[in-house]
Write a structure and sequence with these properties.
single chain; 542 residues; mainly alpha; 4-stranded mixed β-sheet
């Protein structure tokens, strides 16, 4: 560990005395940004578009720009038309629509790759500026980057990641320098409140840092320190009201937290599966847990507060794992640095050598992007926006994959719209809302709390053929379905004489038979007629 650190510092010293000039040599946070940015884009032009909810964000953003008003009720579905809706992410949806209009899906992809990269550049800079060792910080940041990959989507939640990392960076600086940087928090809060519903994470982060500061040591708590944090916290709470919905935004958060029947059937709100999608994360968690024994005294109260609170959050929902990692990675890096220092102290002159290494590191490895870093970052972003680099961007067009979403079916339906109401797959609801015009109201999409528990449960009952599914089928009386071709419900309805209106390897459109009692022969003739009518667009089964 010491040798690697010395090699890196020696390389930086040579870079500073030769050519190119030192300001062009990227700092560690800049290198983290570049590596993360290029890695995300190397997954290809469609991988980050794996969540269909992006579709309704794009649709709503387009509607806001066209109509000049922020929605207060549902306009996308036929199951909850006019239902009250707090669209706290309206700010994101507006800039999504603007970027899509000017730079297409590639622009959205590149911007979100940059947001992800900034998150982990901020994490590394926070740890290094607080005194963590370089190689330890790089390895832990890389591990955290990998462990968040299950949530790498072009979605508004990435802005909550970025702002959480920024909050931590600002507050770590506040605790280090005793300056005034924490006053930035209330000034930036209105931005967060209008971009994503994860803004309570910012309030919780502020509380944990304030608590960690006042409990940092005996005699630390003074009247002036308490008043400062109370003032910052009160102003931050007041600024959360700076949104079009006012206190309704707070009620929406409480409604989400209390919607247990809905959260229980939504995958991203489930507890982590340590034998499945969270198997790798458990090792990072155990490493962090063990490192708490070495937390420097200045950061001990903060470290335990962040770790214990983050643990409670991710145990409830797997979607909180990234917040846990953003909170704790700098603390774990500081703790392991302290462990290396103690270990080095067992060797003659080891502690002194480790101290010199950390002192020299503080001379520049934690610098932010700076002028030179900005040049490298701008070059990388520019090449990506042009689709030139990395080469993975040239595999195809950025956007929703036709292998995952009903892209061809949506084109077909615009010219051959069936009569009546549609029943759609949950994960396709957002895409359908975006791809089809307003004359195609959807059954459901990712705004599950707005729809209420019953509609969510009825959708699940139908798609899994659960108990009473035929009753639910008749209750909603929809006329046609848009479902994955290999879905259980689609195959079952086709066997029950629903007519195939369109079909490809991804999606099938089925129309309810006019006479449920018609003979199988008549149903087969109707199906054959539908298939032969548009033989160029409708595939047949073997």
């Amino acid at each position: 560990m010491l040798n690697l650190g010395k090699i890196l510092l020696k390389h930086r010293k040579r870079a500073g005395t030769g050519s190119p000039p030192r300001w062009l040599v990227p700092s560690v946070p800049c290198l983290v940004f570049l590596c993360c940015f290029l890695f995300v884009l190397s997954t290809g032009p469609t991988w980050m578009f794996g969540d269909g909810d992006l579709g309704w964000h794009l649709r709503v953003g387009r509607d806001i720009l066209n109509e000049g008003r922020i929605p207060t009720a549902d306009t996308l579905s036929w199951t909850a038309p006019g239902a009250p809706w707090v669209d706290i992410q309206w700010g994101t949806e507006v800039w999504y629509a603007l970027v899509l209009e000017r730079a297409g899906f590639l622009g959205l992809l590149v911007i979100h790759a940059a947001i992800l990269a900034l998150v982990f550049a901020l994490i590394s800079q926070t740890a290094l500026a607080a005194g963590a060792e370089v190689i330890t910080t790089i390895l832990l940041t890389g591990a955290a980057f990998y462990l968040t990959s299950i949530h790498w989507f072009v979605r508004p939640h990435l802005q909550t990641w970025l702002l959480t990392a920024l909050w931590c960076n600002i507050l770590f600086r506040q605790l280090r320098t005793e300056g005034r940087s924490a006053w930035l928090i209330p000034l930036l809060t209105p931005l967060w409140v209008n971009l994503h519903g994860g803004w309570p994470t910012g309030c919780l982060t502020l509380f944990l840092f304030a608590l960690g500061d006042v409990l940092a040591g005996p005699g630390r708590l003074t009247r002036s320190l308490a008043l400062k944090w109370i003032a910052i916290g009160s102003l931050t709470a007041l600024m959360t009201l700076a949104n079009p919905y006012g206190p309704q935004a707070h009620s929406d958060v409480l409604q989400m937290v209390g919607a247990k029947p809905i959260l229980d059937i939504t995958e991203e709100w489930q507890s982590p599966d340590f034998r499945g999608n969270a198997w790798h994360f458990k090792w990072m968690f155990l490493l962090g847990l063990g490192s708490l024994a070495f937390v420097p005294s200045r950061w001990k109260a903060l470290g335990f507060g962040l770790f214990l609170t983050g643990t409670q959050m991710f145990m409830v929902s797997v979607r909180h794992i990234p917040i846990f990692l953003i909170w704790t990675t700098p603390i774990v890096a500081l703790s392991l640095t302290e462990a290396w220092t103690r270990l080095a102290g067992l060797i003659p002159a080891g502690r002194e050598a480790m101290g010199r290494l950390l002192d020299r590191q503080q001379a520049g490895s934690h610098r932010w992007l700076g002028a030179g870093g900005g040049v490298w970052a701008a070059l990388a972003v520019g090449l990506a926006l042009a689709g030139l680099f990395p080469p993975a961007l040239q595999r195809g067009a950025a956007g929703f994959s036709a292998d995952t979403y009903p892209v061809a079916a949506a084109v077909y339906l615009q010219e051959h719209r069936p009569e009546g109401r549609m029943f759609n797959d949950y994960s396709w609801g957002g895409y359908v809302a975006y791809a089809l015009p307003k004359g195609f109201p959807i059954f459901i999409d990712g705004r599950n709390v707005m729809y209420g528990a019953q509609i969510n449960i009825d959708w699940l009952t139908l798609t899994t053929l659960g108990s009473g599914w035929e009753r639910v089928l008749n209750q909603y009386d929809f006329s046609w379905t848009l479902l994955p071709t290999d879905s259980l419900l689609s195959r079952t309805l086709e066997q029950r004489q629903w007519r195939v209106h369109y079909q490809d390897s991804t999606a099938t459109v089925l129309i309810r038979p006019a006479d449920p009692q018609q003979s199988p022969d008549a149903a087969q003739e109707a199906t054959a007629g539908s298939r032969s009518q548009d033989s160029g667009k409708v595939s047949t089964r073997d």
